[in-house]
């Protein structure tokens, strides 16, 4: 024997279905519209800052590469962060990374310049610059200065020569 009655529940009478447009609203959809799709992250200023910061780190052995590109990346990174906080840009992390890498590039470049100047002076660089300055435009005297400087460097770092 089969039971032909539907399971218990609150069902509309047969043939009495809601007409189109009267269906109950489903979750996540707005009446008469559509749900907004997620937007891809955009932060052009932050992206430019990140590219400059990466280039600054890669070229930190130069003053222009490290210090200048690093400082520009820092400034643009702060502009990108500001735009993110004002909800004009959507990806603030890119700007934050650019700021950090910009500081790293500038600091690394400064350290390398200071170390380089220190090493240059340690091997007699000041004597070389004085010699070149005194030589003026005399190319033979300039060459003699370069030869003496090269000899000083070789003597300083040659293991067989006592210091």
Detailed description of the structure:
- The chain is mainly alpha-helical and 163 residues long.
- 61% of the residues lie in helices and 0% in strands.
- The protein contains 5 helices and no strands.
- α1 packs parallel to α3, α2 packs antiparallel against α3 and α4 runs antiparallel to α5.
- The longest helix is centred in the middle third of the chain and has 31 residues.
- The chain starts with 43 loop residues before the first helix and ends in a 6-residue tail after the last helix.
- The model has no long low-confidence stretch (mean pLDDT 80).
- Keywords: Membrane, Transmembrane, Transmembrane helix.
- This is DUF4190 domain-containing protein.
Distance between the termini: 113 Å
Helix content: 55-70%
- Largest sheet geometry: none
Rg: 36 Å
- Determine the mean pLDDT: 80
Biased composition (Pro residues): 1-17
Keywords: Membrane, Transmembrane, Transmembrane helix
Transmembrane segments: 48-80, 92-120
Region (Disordered): 1-34
Reconstruct the topology from this structure.
Blueprint: H1 44-58, H2 63-85, H3 92-122, H4 125-135, H5 139-157
Helix pairs in contact: 1-2, 1-3, 2-3, 4-5
């Amino acid at each position: 024997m089969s039971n032909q009655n539907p399971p218990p529940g609150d069902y509309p009478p047969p043939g009495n279905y809601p007409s189109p447009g009267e269906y109950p609203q489903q979750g996540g959809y707005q009446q008469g519209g559509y749900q907004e799709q997620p937007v891809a992250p955009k932060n052009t200023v932050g992206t430019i800052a990140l590219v400059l910061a990466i280039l600054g780190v890669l070229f930190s052995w130069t003053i222009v590469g490290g210090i200048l590109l690093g400082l520009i990346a820092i400034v643009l990174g702060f502009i990108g962060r500001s735009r993110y906080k004002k909800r004009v840009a959507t990806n603030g992390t890119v700007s934050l990374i650019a700021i950090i890498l910009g500081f790293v590039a500038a600091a690394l470049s400064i350290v390398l310049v200071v170390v380089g100047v220190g090493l240059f002076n340690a091997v007699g660089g000041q004597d070389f610059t004085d010699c070149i300055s005194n030589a003026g435009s005399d190319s033979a005297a300039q060459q003699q200065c370069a030869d003496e400087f090269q000899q000083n460097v070789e003597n300083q770092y040659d293991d067989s020569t006592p210091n």
